[in-house]
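step=predict obj=TP53-regulated inhibitor of apoptosis 1 n=72
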Amino acid sequence: MNSVGEGCTDLKREYDQCFNRWFAEKFLKGDRSGDPCTEMFKKYQHCVQKAIKEKDIPIDGVEFMGPNKDKP
């Protein structure tokens, strides 16, 4: 699935691959020592927030997820 911003799609795919690998190989096996994908997520999140602003997508009332829950 593509991202809301065309320029964010590659970042989304990289993050998805990182998260899925970490989830399957570490988290599900009991290793909860950290998420190595956090910085990648932050880059993707920033890109999405920028795309939302550029496309003037209304976000009032939307809750954001992730380590940085600030609205764009």
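step=describe
The two ends are 22 Å apart (CA to CA).
step=end
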